[in-house]
Design goal:
0% strand, 64% helix, single chain, mainly alpha
């Protein structure tokens, strides 16, 4: 539901921006406020995403600029991805690793 509302607001403001009633800075601010919530990733989901795009642990680590042992710890449930890593996992899940390369 939250995503639907955010998408509706963003689209309305985008229309207002196209017609010159809302400036570009306000448009960017609205887009930033309506960013989707980034969920947590389980070890199984991380493995699934990595395998879906045929990435090794080392390749995923390279894309994220982290060590392969960090990816291994995520997948073994010893650590959880946080902050930027969760955001990057979300981008890869939605758009593929090409979006980050």
């Amino acid at each position: 539901m939250r995503k639907f509302v955010a998408d509706s607001i963003t689209e309305t403001v985008r229309d207002l921006n196209r017609s010159g009633l809302v400036d570009d800075i306000t448009m960017k601010n609205i887009e930033n406020l309506c960013l989707p919530e980034i969920r947590e990733y389980s070890p199984e989901k991380i493995i699934s995403i990595r395998k879906k795009f045929t990435l090794s642990q080392a390749a995923l680590a390279s894309i994220f600029n982290i060590s392969p042992s960090t990816v291994r710890q995520w997948e073994q449930s010893n650590k959880k991805p946080a902050g930027a890593s969760r955001k990057l996992l979300n981008i890869i899940e939605r758009k593929g690793p090409e979006a980050l390369i």
